[in-house]
Design goal:
about 15% strand; about 50% helix; about 210 residues; alpha/beta
Length: about 210
Amino acid sequence: MKIEVYFTPHGLAPNELAGRTVVAVDLLRASTTIAVALAAGAREILPAGSTEEALRLAQNLESDQVVLAGERKSVRIPGFALGNSPLEFTPEAVGGRTIVLTTTNGTQALLAAQGAREIIVAAAVNFGVVVERARAAAKAQLQAAKALPAAYLREVFEGDHTRKWRSRRLGELIDRCNYIIHPGDRAEGEVSVGKLREGFRAGVARAG
């Protein structure tokens, strides 16, 4: 398993995150606030990139079922019901409601990670759950890598296909497995993948 760390979301491209699990951390405020809000019974959290976007999202929801929350430079946005302090997100304030949240950094990171397969919001208050979820995601990727070859190999060798077709499909298998195990880093393991490709080609040649 390979873990990459980005200190800011700037420069992240959706294609770099496709198929990957992202753990977003804005420890002191946004991540903790989101975890506390959900623990307090909030129905869901909708991140917004700006004050204007938050207002637009809220307008599409029932007024008594939505809470506007957010800050800019640690100060509550004028007109919003809540800021970005976990202490504000009590069951009385957010229970059963949708929270539209916009913050200086935290929600920007969540929005930048939208291309990911899964986004996990991490804070000190939910650290144990985050670790379990991240481990489960890594295990699922490895299981997918193990299951995929069987399906491909059955298709390749059971059907009446040409040698060229078989070679192409096996090449796709190798590339796909390498991507599952090393998403975002296609150079990882080039030597071993090259050897695997040679072995498959030899097998295809023998199978005729």
